Structures are given as structure tokens and as C-alpha cells.
Amino acid sequence: MIAMVMREKAVVVSVATEGLPVVAVHADLDELSALLHTAGADVVARLVQKRVAPDPATYLGRGKVCELRDLVNETGAGLVAFDADLTPAQVHHLEESLPEGVKVLDRAAVILDIFALRARTREAKLQVELAQLEYLLPRLTRRWQHLSRQAGGIGTRGVGETQLEIDRRVIKRRITLLRRELQRVAKERFVQRRRRQGFPSVALVGYTNAGKSALFQQLTRESTVVENRLFATLDPLVRRAALEGGLAVVVADTVGFIRKLPHQLVASFRATLLEAASADLLLHVVDVSHPRWQEHLRVGEEVLESLGVDPSGCLLALNKVDLLAEEWPNLPYDRRSVFVSARTGFGLSALRQAMADELIKRDVVDVVRVSLQTPGELSQALSRRDLVGRRFSAEAVELYLRRR
User: Fold this and answer.
1) Which residue from 217, 237, 238 is spatially nearest to 226, judged by alpha carbons?
2) Which structural domains are found in the chain, ordered by start?
3) Residue 151 has pLDDT above 60, yes or no
């Protein structure tokens, strides 16, 4: 994959098909521009074509390809990014039509590049490498055409293999090794998760840049990376937090979702996502200040459904209300939700209470009230191994007991 370390000039491209408003297309290109900025490129121009359907050979029509070539020459762009999944043939034909050296990337390639840039832990690096190789494998024909000749030399004469076939075999072998290694890492994570089972678990999920890391920091009082950019968090982070009433939980921050998330990444990060999905409570964080927050909510719910999780069981944290200039939005359906601002702290007490209520409602924990007038019973209760929280009052103490 391409690791864009220097800031490149880029042109973003999309096709507005029938039934898709041009306004929505430009909003999608805004998101692609933000992705490219995160990857290290500056968007200098954009191109949109109205078509019934994308051209199977070049995605754009012949005239628009010529217009794109002129735009690249005019702006000096070295990269053209399409807000779509391109076939290997489309990328090949487009690169042949553009000035020499200009790279053509589809949306999946840009996202994969960001993940490669952001991966820090060994597990994340393995997951990203697996996704990159699975993306690259069907594209070897285009990238390795100059190597598609018989391997020569002593001991290789005769029928032999083409260099392309050797490359494919090497990549397939590496993919197999990465999958085995990730299975081993998944087992290690399972053991770690079992050690934490004494406490109820909460996982933060949601669209990228919805404010999950900022909310995680507020809930756990732990310092973590908080940036106003896409995919600032890639590696899962788990920390202890205290909810209202003294209920102790473990909270996990997870990788964000995004529209048209490459299926290779979903498959590679499946073990990580499933760990989040197996939490006792899912907190779906939504940036309600974003004009397309309802679509972001839907994208997150679709990813959860693909993991076998019922999204209606999530508690919604409607974040960034401090950025709303108008009235707070109404949800289109009946869902348990809390308006919060992770930046200012607004609504966090109500959110902690809602999280505790949900865990009690779902029978994750039991609440037992013990009188202070019975010290023997109280001492016995306080020494229980399934105790995960307590709250004292003038006459009694409320104990939270973890259900097994």
C-alpha cells in the first residue's frame, strides 16, 4: 500500500447517479477530503459527473476523463481519489489516461492507508497488513505487469512459473500466516477478557470522529488520544470507570465506523469488533452536530447487525450538543438516549446514571440493600467476591453484585 508521508496535492472525484442528489455527493466528497487530509494530502480540486451509472472501463465518461487530465495538469496534483470502489481494470485505464506518475486510489485504498499510518499495537499492525494484502491480491495483474514473464536462471528453465504467479503464492502464504497469528492474538484477548469478567463491561462504538475517545476520557479519567480527525483511535483501549452510585465497570474504546468501510478491514478487525459487541452494554456515540448524523447512526447500526448485534439494544450518547446552533434533534424512533458534550462535561452525570440503570435493568448486576444496624451481615456482604460497587446512606448501604 501507499504510505503518504509528504503532503500531496489531490483531486477528489465522484459520480452522481440517478436518484442521488449532487448535494449528497459533495457531502461525501467532503468526507473523502477529510480522509485524505488525515492520510497526508491536501485536496486542491474536485470533479463530479452526472451519469446513469459509472462507466465500467474508466468509471467516468470519456469526456470527463479528459477533463480530469486537464485538471490534474492545471493543479499539479499527484493523486486522484475516487469516492467509490474501483475495479483493478478501472484503475489501470485511468492511470494510463492521466499524466505519468499520477496515482489513482479508490476510497478503500485511502482508508487502508490511514489504518496503516495509525496502527500502533502489534495486533492492529497484523490486522492492517492482512487487510492490505487481501486488497492487493486481486490487483497484482495491474501492479506487477512488468514482472509477468517466466523466471529464468539455472534450475528454473522449462515450464516454470511466471513472476506474477510467484508473487501471488507468496502473498497467499503470508495471508495464511497472518490469519493464524491473529487467531492466536484473539485467544490471548479472550483470556484477558475473562480476567476482567468480575466487572460489568461497556463498549463505546460509533462513527469515526463522533467523540468516542473524548467521552472515554471523561468516563475513565484516563488520558488518551483525542483529535478532531478521522480514525484518531485504532487500537482498543480498556480502562476502569465508576458510574453513578459507585458501580464499577470496565469501558472499552473501539475503532470508529465509516461509510463504505472496506470489507477487508471489517474482516480483519472482526475479532476486535466482536469483543466490543460481546460487552454487557454498548454505548453508541453519535455526533448530533453533524448534518448527516442520522446516516452516521444508520452506518453504525449496519456494522453492528453484520456482527450479529441488535442495534436497538444500544444506549445512545448524542454527543457534541455544545456545537448545536439550533434546537436539539428529535430521534425518529423510541430509543434510550442521553444528550451529552464530552468536551464541556454536559450530561455526563445523566449518562453515567443511564448506564447504571441499563446494567441493572438487563440483570447484569443486582442491587442489595443492607442495613447499617446489622454489622455482621454488612461485613459479610462487603467481603463478597462479586461486589462491584457500593453506595452508603444514613441508614443503609446499597451493594452492586455482579451476576454470573
Assistant:
1) 217
2) 8-114 (3.40.50.11060), 120-193 (no CATH), 197-361 (3.40.50.300), 365-402 (no CATH)
3) no
